[in-house]
Specification:
alpha+beta, Jelly Rolls, 3 domains, four-stranded antiparallel beta sheet, 10 helices
Length: about 300
């Protein structure tokens, strides 16, 4: 059996921050609260999740410790899915693949928005050493738990080991629907609506912000075997960057959303790599956000107030 139905009563801890994660959950009825430092004096609620939503999936996908506690808010019924049952669960519920991808994609987008806000304040702090925006920043943060992170948490950059393992598994498989691009070809352009994602099979692809403009910035380079463009595909929103082939005979495999279920049946390793890539991206942007907030906090008058 790929999922076990469980019921929790008000106040029961479903998962605990810091524990190893070997199961994830989907809410069937009721709602849960997501907390940092649950049960401590500086406890803060991050979010409320309701029927149909998932939680705990990142710890399963990347085998990381739980990043927060999840507590029943009233009576709650959930499906619990063990890590070793994930493939069977998806096989029985293939429509859930895109649901989980979209969940991670939404979290990446929201955290990126939060990071951009923090980065704007931080750039101002570095340039002018001004504290005028501190109070408004901390007052308007959508995730007040980050304030605690800035004060109390030791930041560690996420490891990419799970990505390397997933890429190795995919590299052993044959590619489907491959297109070859010469050097300098724009694979997709910033502002275009994303309708597919890609896996680099040969060569390399660089991702640019404002490609061709005076303020062009190379964000990253994607090498074999790694995916890119997945955020645009799952969100069906305009691309936030431009992808360009960096060498001749750059080969990329194309994946469209309507093909995801079929790909899982024939090559589950590809879906595993995509999920791990999304989870890793979320961990990285969360790390960068926390790091920015920590620097803001260290320079903020709030730090001096908190020490008394």
């Amino acid at each position: 059996m790929s999922a076990i139905e469980k019921t929790f009563t008000n106040g029961e801890i479903i998962i605990k921050e810091g524990d190893s994660g070997n199961t994830f959950f989907q809410i069937l009825n009721g709602k849960v609260g997501v907390y940092k430092n649950y049960g401590k004096d500086d406890q803060i609620q991050i979010a409320i999740l309701e029927q149909g939503q998932y939680f705990g999936e990142m710890a399963v996908i990347e085998n990381y410790p739980r990043s927060s506690s999840v507590v029943a808010e009233g009576d709650v019924t959930v499906d619990e899915i063990a890590a070793e049952e994930l493939n069977e669960y998806i096989s029985q519920n293939p429509d859930k693949i895109l649901t989980i991808m979209k969940l991670l994609g939404d979290r990446i987008k929201n955290m990126t928005d939060d990071y951009n806000e923090a980065k704007k304040i931080l750039d101002g702090v570095r340039k002018a050493n001004s504290s005028s925006n501190y109070d408004s920043f901390f007052a308007n943060m959508t995730k007040q738990s980050i304030y605690l992170t800035a004060k109390n948490f030791r930041l560690e950059r996420p490891s990419a080991e799970s990505l390397r393992e997933a890429a190795e598994a995919v590299s052993k498989q044959a590619a489907e629907k491959v297109i070859t691009y010469p050097y300098g070809t724009i694979i997709f352009k910033q502002g275009e609506v994303g309708k597919c994602m890609y896996i680099v099979r040969n060569g390399s692809v660089s991702i640019y912000s404002n490609y061709g403009a005076d303020n062009e910035v190379k964000l990253t380079t994607v090498e074999p075997v790694a995916c890119f463009g997945e955020m645009g595909m799952i969100s069906e929103e305009p691309r936030t960057a431009t992808a360009v082939a960096e060498v001749n005979d750059t080969k990329v495999e194309i994946i469209r959303p309507e093909e995801v279920e079929g790909i899982f049946k024939s090559s589950p390793e590809k879906i595993d790599m995509i999920l791990k890539n999304l989870s890793y991206r979320l961990r990285v942007i969360t790390y960068e956000y926390c790091k920015a907030c920590q620097e803001i906090y260290e320079a903020s008058p709030k730090k001096d107030e908190d020490e008394y």
